[in-house]
Amino acid sequence: MNRWACLFLAVTTMNVHSEGLKIPNNFTLKPKSGDIMNSILNGECQPINNGKIKCYFNQVAFSKTDETHEELETKLARIDAPKMKGIKEFNKSFFCNQDTKQKIADMITQSNNPRKSEQLLKLEKLISNCPIKNETEAKAIMHRMIKFDYETDKLTCKISFNTFELEFSKAGSGNNQYWRNISEPNINPCGLTNIVSMKYDKDGNIWEYSGHRVISIPKNKTFLGHDSCTTMNSKPMVWSLYGDDIYNNCQIINPGF
Questions:
Q1: Domain ranges across the chain
Q2: Around Cβ 217, how many Cβ atoms within 10 Å?
Q3: For residue 133, pLDDT beyond 80
Q4: Above pLDDT 90, what percent of the chain?
Q5: Beta carbons within 10 angstroms of residue 159's beta carbon
Q6: Angle in degrees, 0-180, between the axes of helices 114-127 and 98-110, rounded to the nearest 10
Q7: Quick check: 190 and 229 in contact, CB under 8 A?
Q8: So what's the architecture of 3-64+158-255 in CATH?
Q9: Measured between alpha carbons, how far is 192 from 208 in angstroms, rounded to an integer?
Q10: What does the pLDDT read at residue 14?
Q11: Which residue among 68, 172, 217, 219 has its CA within the 20 to 30 Å range from the CA of 126?
Q12: Pairing between strand 156-171 and 252-255?
């Protein structure tokens, strides 16, 4: 089980609007705070039996490269021009292969993402330098290749998914009714429990999903070592319709893991 699923296998409550207990359905929420700021949460809930509901959640996480410009410059400074034997091998490589040129041309034709097309055109221009004739050209093209990768990574988000299900039963009364999940054992070294709530905003229009971690055995440690239980992030984790549009910075989307 990954760390995203563990976030929700806990005591979960859902508070509702004063009109009565409702069933959360077809919601998409954006991150507001906590260590979930790179993900959005969507899902829906359905009645099952004896007044209970089952909720199906999908957490979509976005990640980007964290390489800095200083790291790029360090990488460029380490480049040494290959000897002539290496240049000959380079000209036979995948990079200078005619099939590669055709595949890139096809990708440009098929792409409906302007920024991705722009990057592919840069790559096509880079490949047009083949074959490489000398060491000076080799060093120059390797600089351009590294910069191309850096620029593309800055525009690209890798996307990954985590899906999970939870069942809930009613709790509370009157205007204070809410949904509480049917607890499951949460076995971990820190005695970690994630207390999560889902409630309407003050206007009763949208859901806000929030939670925080409770550590019952802080003296223990995880595989991360000494004091790892006490150093876990306890800042409230909140998703809301009014959260951050993190995916707006993603101009190229690729699958992640």
A1: 3-64+158-255, 69-157
A2: 12
A3: yes
A4: 0
A5: 16
A6: 160
A7: yes
A8: Beta Barrel (2.40)
A9: 22
A10: 40
A11: 68
A12: parallel
User: For residue 13, is pLDDT > 60?
Assistant: no
Query: 29: buried, middle or exposed (CB in 10 Å: 19+, 13-18, 0-12)?
Result: buried
Which pLDDT tens digit goes with each residue over 207-220? 777 777 777 777 77
The candidate with the shortest Cα–Cα distance to 51, out of 19, 74, 77, 23, is: 23
**Whole-number Å distance between alpha carbons of 92 and 81:** 17
Q: Does a cis peptide bond (omega within 30 degrees of 0) precede residue 131? A: yes
Tokens encoding 255 = 């699958």
> Hey, what are 137's tokens?
């050209």
Length of the chain: 257
Give the global pTM. Answer: 0.60
Reduced 3-state DSSP string for the chain: CCHHHHHHCCCEEEECCCCCCCCCCCEEEEEEECCCCCEEEEEEEEECCCCCEEEEEEEEEEECCCCCHHHHHHHHHCCCCCCHHHHHHHHCCHHHCHHHHHHHHHHHHHCCCHHHHHHHHHHHHHHCCCCCCCHHHHHHHHHHHHHHHHHHHHHEEEEEEEEEEEEEEEECCHHHCEEEECCCCCCCCCCEEEEEEEEECCCCCCEEEEEEEEECCCCCCECCECCCCCCCCCCCEEEECCCCCHHHHCCEEEECC
Q: What is the pLDDT of residue 93?
A: 77
d(CA 118, CA 123): 9
Instruction: Please determine, for residue 12, whether its predicted confidence score (pLDDT) is greater than 60.
Output: no
